[in-house]
Structure to design on (331 residues):
Protein backbone atom coordinates (compact mmCIF):
# COMPACT_ATOMS: atom_id res chain seq x y z
CA UNK A 1 0.00 0.00 0.00
CA UNK A 2 1.31 3.49 -0.79
CA UNK A 3 0.30 7.12 -0.23
CA UNK A 4 2.11 10.40 -0.88
CA UNK A 5 3.75 12.65 1.66
CA UNK A 6 1.06 15.25 0.95
CA UNK A 7 -1.68 12.70 1.71
CA UNK A 8 0.06 11.87 4.98
CA UNK A 9 -0.02 15.53 5.97
CA UNK A 10 3.70 15.79 6.67
CA UNK A 11 4.72 18.22 3.93
CA UNK A 12 5.70 20.95 6.38
CA UNK A 13 8.58 18.99 7.88
CA UNK A 14 10.03 18.33 4.43
CA UNK A 15 10.42 21.95 3.41
CA UNK A 16 14.03 21.91 4.60
CA UNK A 17 14.81 19.22 1.99
CA UNK A 18 14.56 20.99 -1.34
CA UNK A 19 15.94 20.05 -4.70
CA UNK A 20 16.25 22.78 -7.33
CA UNK A 21 13.89 24.88 -5.26
CA UNK A 22 11.08 22.27 -5.36
CA UNK A 23 9.65 19.91 -2.78
CA UNK A 24 10.88 17.01 -4.88
CA UNK A 25 9.44 14.22 -2.73
CA UNK A 26 6.04 15.74 -1.86
CA UNK A 27 4.12 13.99 -4.64
CA UNK A 28 6.20 10.83 -4.67
CA UNK A 29 4.37 7.65 -3.63
CA UNK A 30 5.67 6.16 -0.41
CA UNK A 31 5.30 2.57 0.66
CA UNK A 32 3.65 2.42 4.08
CA UNK A 33 5.77 -0.62 4.91
CA UNK A 34 8.80 1.69 4.88
CA UNK A 35 7.12 3.91 7.45
CA UNK A 36 6.16 0.90 9.57
CA UNK A 37 9.79 -0.24 9.58
CA UNK A 38 10.99 3.26 10.47
CA UNK A 39 8.46 3.59 13.30
CA UNK A 40 9.39 0.17 14.69
CA UNK A 41 13.12 1.03 14.75
CA UNK A 42 12.37 4.31 16.52
CA UNK A 43 10.12 2.58 19.03
CA UNK A 44 12.45 -0.34 19.77
CA UNK A 45 15.71 1.58 19.50
CA UNK A 46 17.29 -1.11 17.34
CA UNK A 47 16.94 -2.82 13.98
CA UNK A 48 16.86 -6.28 15.54
CA UNK A 49 14.07 -5.27 17.93
CA UNK A 50 12.06 -3.82 15.05
CA UNK A 51 12.59 -7.00 13.03
CA UNK A 52 11.27 -9.10 15.91
CA UNK A 53 8.21 -6.87 16.29
CA UNK A 54 7.40 -7.02 12.58
CA UNK A 55 8.32 -10.73 12.23
CA UNK A 56 10.69 -10.06 9.32
CA UNK A 57 14.47 -10.46 8.89
CA UNK A 58 16.70 -7.68 10.22
CA UNK A 59 17.98 -7.10 6.68
CA UNK A 60 14.43 -6.33 5.51
CA UNK A 61 14.07 -3.60 8.14
CA UNK A 62 17.50 -2.19 7.28
CA UNK A 63 16.67 -2.02 3.56
CA UNK A 64 13.30 -0.38 4.28
CA UNK A 65 14.84 2.37 6.41
CA UNK A 66 17.60 2.93 3.85
CA UNK A 67 14.99 3.28 1.09
CA UNK A 68 13.05 5.82 3.15
CA UNK A 69 16.20 7.82 3.88
CA UNK A 70 17.09 7.78 0.19
CA UNK A 71 13.66 9.13 -0.72
CA UNK A 72 13.98 11.88 1.89
CA UNK A 73 17.57 12.63 1.05
CA UNK A 74 18.55 12.73 4.73
CA UNK A 75 19.33 10.28 7.54
CA UNK A 76 16.66 9.30 10.04
CA UNK A 77 19.01 7.50 12.44
CA UNK A 78 22.57 7.81 13.69
CA UNK A 79 23.93 4.26 13.75
CA UNK A 80 26.73 3.17 16.06
CA UNK A 81 28.05 -0.29 16.87
CA UNK A 82 26.08 -0.31 20.13
CA UNK A 83 22.89 1.64 19.54
CA UNK A 84 20.66 3.50 17.10
CA UNK A 85 19.74 7.14 17.78
CA UNK A 86 16.92 8.93 15.98
CA UNK A 87 17.90 12.21 14.27
CA UNK A 88 15.88 15.41 14.82
CA UNK A 89 14.22 14.89 11.44
CA UNK A 90 13.45 11.29 12.40
CA UNK A 91 11.85 12.35 15.68
CA UNK A 92 9.69 14.97 13.99
CA UNK A 93 8.71 12.54 11.25
CA UNK A 94 7.71 9.94 13.82
CA UNK A 95 5.54 12.45 15.71
CA UNK A 96 3.70 13.27 12.49
CA UNK A 97 3.27 9.82 10.98
CA UNK A 98 2.67 7.73 14.12
CA UNK A 99 -0.98 8.90 14.48
CA UNK A 100 -1.53 8.29 10.77
CA UNK A 101 -0.18 4.75 11.00
CA UNK A 102 -2.27 4.04 14.09
CA UNK A 103 -5.38 5.35 12.31
CA UNK A 104 -4.72 3.18 9.25
CA UNK A 105 -4.09 0.12 11.41
CA UNK A 106 -7.35 0.71 13.26
CA UNK A 107 -9.28 1.11 10.01
CA UNK A 108 -7.87 -2.14 8.64
CA UNK A 109 -8.58 -3.97 11.88
CA UNK A 110 -12.24 -2.89 11.74
CA UNK A 111 -12.82 -4.23 8.23
CA UNK A 112 -14.96 -7.41 8.01
CA UNK A 113 -12.84 -10.54 8.26
CA UNK A 114 -13.05 -11.86 4.71
CA UNK A 115 -10.92 -14.89 5.59
CA UNK A 116 -13.91 -16.46 7.33
CA UNK A 117 -16.55 -15.50 4.75
CA UNK A 118 -17.51 -18.12 2.17
CA UNK A 119 -19.07 -16.35 -0.80
CA UNK A 120 -18.63 -15.78 -4.50
CA UNK A 121 -18.44 -18.30 -7.34
CA UNK A 122 -16.37 -21.46 -6.95
CA UNK A 123 -15.28 -22.96 -10.30
CA UNK A 124 -14.72 -26.72 -10.20
CA UNK A 125 -13.86 -29.41 -12.70
CA UNK A 126 -13.67 -33.20 -12.56
CA UNK A 127 -13.91 -36.26 -14.76
CA UNK A 128 -17.45 -37.48 -15.42
CA UNK A 129 -17.26 -40.37 -12.95
CA UNK A 130 -15.60 -38.45 -10.12
CA UNK A 131 -17.82 -35.45 -10.68
CA UNK A 132 -21.03 -37.47 -10.64
CA UNK A 133 -20.17 -39.98 -7.92
CA UNK A 134 -18.11 -37.77 -5.58
CA UNK A 135 -18.21 -34.05 -6.31
CA UNK A 136 -21.99 -33.75 -6.70
CA UNK A 137 -22.68 -34.68 -3.08
CA UNK A 138 -19.85 -32.46 -1.83
CA UNK A 139 -21.29 -29.54 -3.83
CA UNK A 140 -24.75 -30.16 -2.37
CA UNK A 141 -23.32 -30.04 1.16
CA UNK A 142 -21.34 -26.91 0.30
CA UNK A 143 -24.24 -24.83 -1.02
CA UNK A 144 -26.46 -25.91 1.88
CA UNK A 145 -23.87 -24.83 4.42
CA UNK A 146 -22.85 -21.59 2.68
CA UNK A 147 -25.93 -19.83 1.25
CA UNK A 148 -23.87 -16.97 -0.22
CA UNK A 149 -21.70 -19.33 -2.28
CA UNK A 150 -22.25 -20.31 -5.91
CA UNK A 151 -20.70 -23.16 -7.88
CA UNK A 152 -19.87 -23.65 -11.55
CA UNK A 153 -18.95 -27.25 -12.41
CA UNK A 154 -17.44 -28.60 -15.62
CA UNK A 155 -17.38 -32.36 -16.17
CA UNK A 156 -14.75 -33.27 -18.73
CA UNK A 157 -12.13 -35.92 -19.36
CA UNK A 158 -9.89 -33.49 -21.25
CA UNK A 159 -6.81 -31.87 -19.74
CA UNK A 160 -7.96 -28.47 -18.51
CA UNK A 161 -6.10 -25.17 -18.57
CA UNK A 162 -6.46 -23.66 -15.09
CA UNK A 163 -5.29 -20.20 -16.12
CA UNK A 164 -7.47 -19.93 -19.23
CA UNK A 165 -10.59 -21.50 -17.71
CA UNK A 166 -10.12 -19.89 -14.27
CA UNK A 167 -10.78 -23.05 -12.27
CA UNK A 168 -10.34 -22.92 -8.51
CA UNK A 169 -10.13 -26.66 -7.87
CA UNK A 170 -10.07 -29.93 -9.81
CA UNK A 171 -10.46 -33.61 -9.01
CA UNK A 172 -8.40 -35.45 -11.60
CA UNK A 173 -6.82 -38.80 -12.39
CA UNK A 174 -3.03 -38.72 -12.51
CA UNK A 175 -1.38 -42.02 -13.46
CA UNK A 176 2.41 -41.92 -13.80
CA UNK A 177 3.35 -38.36 -14.62
CA UNK A 178 3.60 -35.88 -11.74
CA UNK A 179 1.18 -33.01 -11.42
CA UNK A 180 2.22 -29.98 -13.49
CA UNK A 181 4.78 -27.83 -11.64
CA UNK A 182 2.42 -24.88 -12.13
CA UNK A 183 -0.19 -26.62 -9.95
CA UNK A 184 -0.44 -27.94 -6.40
CA UNK A 185 -1.78 -31.48 -6.00
CA UNK A 186 -2.85 -33.65 -3.08
CA UNK A 187 -3.55 -37.36 -3.39
CA UNK A 188 -7.01 -38.21 -2.05
CA UNK A 189 -7.47 -41.76 -3.29
CA UNK A 190 -6.82 -44.38 -5.95
CA UNK A 191 -9.21 -45.31 -8.74
CA UNK A 192 -9.04 -48.98 -9.72
CA UNK A 193 -10.75 -50.43 -12.82
CA UNK A 194 -11.82 -54.07 -12.83
CA UNK A 195 -14.09 -56.43 -14.76
CA UNK A 196 -17.80 -56.75 -13.93
CA UNK A 197 -20.84 -58.58 -15.20
CA UNK A 198 -24.44 -59.13 -14.10
CA UNK A 199 -25.62 -62.35 -12.40
CA UNK A 200 -28.00 -62.89 -15.33
CA UNK A 201 -25.23 -62.71 -17.90
CA UNK A 202 -22.93 -64.94 -15.85
CA UNK A 203 -25.72 -67.49 -15.48
CA UNK A 204 -25.80 -67.80 -19.28
CA UNK A 205 -22.03 -67.46 -19.73
CA UNK A 206 -20.03 -68.91 -16.82
CA UNK A 207 -17.51 -66.46 -15.36
CA UNK A 208 -13.98 -66.71 -16.74
CA UNK A 209 -11.48 -68.29 -14.38
CA UNK A 210 -8.39 -67.00 -16.19
CA UNK A 211 -7.63 -63.96 -18.38
CA UNK A 212 -7.37 -66.28 -21.40
CA UNK A 213 -11.08 -67.13 -21.08
CA UNK A 214 -12.14 -63.46 -21.12
CA UNK A 215 -11.85 -63.23 -24.92
CA UNK A 216 -14.61 -65.85 -25.23
CA UNK A 217 -17.17 -63.46 -23.70
CA UNK A 218 -19.35 -60.69 -25.06
CA UNK A 219 -18.13 -57.22 -24.21
CA UNK A 220 -19.56 -53.81 -23.49
CA UNK A 221 -16.94 -51.08 -23.69
CA UNK A 222 -16.48 -47.32 -23.67
CA UNK A 223 -12.70 -47.55 -24.05
CA UNK A 224 -10.14 -49.28 -26.20
CA UNK A 225 -9.30 -52.94 -26.60
CA UNK A 226 -7.18 -54.98 -26.11
CA UNK A 227 -6.81 -54.68 -22.35
CA UNK A 228 -3.95 -55.61 -20.07
CA UNK A 229 -4.85 -57.30 -16.80
CA UNK A 230 -2.40 -57.02 -13.90
CA UNK A 231 -2.17 -58.75 -10.52
CA UNK A 232 -0.98 -57.16 -7.29
CA UNK A 233 2.37 -58.90 -7.82
CA UNK A 234 2.78 -57.34 -11.26
CA UNK A 235 1.86 -60.36 -13.37
CA UNK A 236 0.31 -59.22 -16.67
CA UNK A 237 -1.91 -60.77 -19.34
CA UNK A 238 -3.22 -59.13 -22.52
CA UNK A 239 -6.90 -59.63 -23.32
CA UNK A 240 -8.40 -59.25 -26.80
CA UNK A 241 -12.16 -59.20 -27.28
CA UNK A 242 -14.69 -57.96 -29.83
CA UNK A 243 -17.17 -55.48 -28.27
CA UNK A 244 -20.83 -56.34 -28.66
CA UNK A 245 -21.72 -52.76 -27.74
CA UNK A 246 -19.36 -49.79 -27.77
CA UNK A 247 -20.28 -46.42 -26.29
CA UNK A 248 -18.57 -43.28 -25.05
CA UNK A 249 -20.01 -42.97 -21.54
CA UNK A 250 -19.23 -44.98 -18.43
CA UNK A 251 -22.71 -44.71 -16.94
CA UNK A 252 -24.29 -45.86 -20.20
CA UNK A 253 -21.99 -48.88 -20.03
CA UNK A 254 -22.96 -49.55 -16.42
CA UNK A 255 -26.64 -49.70 -17.42
CA UNK A 256 -25.83 -52.19 -20.19
CA UNK A 257 -23.85 -54.35 -17.76
CA UNK A 258 -26.74 -54.30 -15.28
CA UNK A 259 -29.00 -55.48 -18.09
CA UNK A 260 -26.80 -58.47 -18.89
CA UNK A 261 -25.23 -57.36 -22.18
CA UNK A 262 -21.78 -58.77 -21.39
CA UNK A 263 -18.62 -58.11 -19.41
CA UNK A 264 -17.15 -54.66 -19.03
CA UNK A 265 -14.71 -52.46 -17.16
CA UNK A 266 -15.80 -50.07 -14.41
CA UNK A 267 -14.08 -48.18 -11.61
CA UNK A 268 -14.65 -50.08 -8.39
CA UNK A 269 -16.20 -47.04 -6.69
CA UNK A 270 -18.72 -46.68 -9.54
CA UNK A 271 -19.70 -50.37 -9.28
CA UNK A 272 -19.61 -50.56 -5.46
CA UNK A 273 -23.34 -50.07 -4.79
CA UNK A 274 -24.31 -52.53 -7.54
CA UNK A 275 -21.89 -55.12 -6.16
CA UNK A 276 -23.30 -54.62 -2.67
CA UNK A 277 -26.89 -55.01 -3.93
CA UNK A 278 -26.06 -57.99 -6.13
CA UNK A 279 -26.79 -56.19 -9.42
CA UNK A 280 -23.18 -56.70 -10.56
CA UNK A 281 -20.50 -59.27 -9.83
CA UNK A 282 -16.76 -58.68 -9.85
CA UNK A 283 -15.04 -60.92 -12.42
CA UNK A 284 -11.44 -62.10 -11.93
CA UNK A 285 -11.23 -60.12 -8.65
CA UNK A 286 -7.46 -60.62 -8.32
CA UNK A 287 -6.81 -58.86 -11.64
CA UNK A 288 -6.83 -55.11 -12.27
CA UNK A 289 -7.29 -53.40 -15.63
CA UNK A 290 -5.95 -50.00 -14.59
CA UNK A 291 -5.19 -47.94 -11.49
CA UNK A 292 -4.56 -44.24 -11.07
CA UNK A 293 -4.05 -41.69 -8.33
CA UNK A 294 -6.88 -39.28 -7.66
CA UNK A 295 -5.52 -35.80 -7.06
CA UNK A 296 -7.16 -32.68 -5.70
CA UNK A 297 -5.46 -29.95 -7.72
CA UNK A 298 -5.42 -26.16 -7.51
CA UNK A 299 -3.25 -23.26 -8.72
CA UNK A 300 -0.49 -22.19 -6.33
CA UNK A 301 -1.53 -19.53 -3.82
CA UNK A 302 0.24 -18.25 -0.74
CA UNK A 303 -3.17 -18.42 0.90
CA UNK A 304 -6.12 -20.18 -0.70
CA UNK A 305 -9.41 -18.26 -0.75
CA UNK A 306 -11.81 -19.32 1.97
CA UNK A 307 -14.35 -20.53 -0.60
CA UNK A 308 -11.74 -23.06 -1.81
CA UNK A 309 -10.60 -24.29 1.61
CA UNK A 310 -14.22 -24.62 2.76
CA UNK A 311 -15.04 -26.90 -0.17
CA UNK A 312 -11.83 -28.87 0.32
CA UNK A 313 -12.76 -29.56 3.94
CA UNK A 314 -16.21 -30.85 2.97
CA UNK A 315 -14.83 -32.99 0.15
CA UNK A 316 -12.14 -34.56 2.34
CA UNK A 317 -14.73 -35.31 5.03
CA UNK A 318 -16.90 -37.02 2.42
CA UNK A 319 -13.97 -39.07 1.09
CA UNK A 320 -13.09 -40.12 4.64
CA UNK A 321 -16.66 -41.38 5.12
CA UNK A 322 -16.84 -43.13 1.74
CA UNK A 323 -13.36 -43.75 0.29
CA UNK A 324 -13.08 -44.23 -3.45
CA UNK A 325 -10.03 -46.48 -3.00
CA UNK A 326 -10.44 -50.25 -2.64
CA UNK A 327 -9.49 -51.48 0.83
CA UNK A 328 -5.99 -52.60 -0.13
CA UNK A 329 -5.13 -49.22 -1.71
CA UNK A 330 -4.18 -46.53 0.80
CA UNK A 331 -4.55 -42.80 0.17
Amino acid sequence: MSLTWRQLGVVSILRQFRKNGNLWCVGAPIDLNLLRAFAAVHGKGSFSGAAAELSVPRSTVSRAVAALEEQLGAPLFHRTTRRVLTTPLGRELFERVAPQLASLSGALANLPDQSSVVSGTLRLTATHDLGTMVMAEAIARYVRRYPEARVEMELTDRVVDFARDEFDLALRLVSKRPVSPSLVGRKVGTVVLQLFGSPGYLARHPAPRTPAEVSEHEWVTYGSLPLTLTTARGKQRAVTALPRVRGNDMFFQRELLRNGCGLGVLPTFVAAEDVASGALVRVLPDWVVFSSRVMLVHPPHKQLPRKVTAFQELLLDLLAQRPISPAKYSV
In short: The chain has three domains: 2-109, 116-189+294-321, 192-291. The chain is about 40% helix and 25% strand.
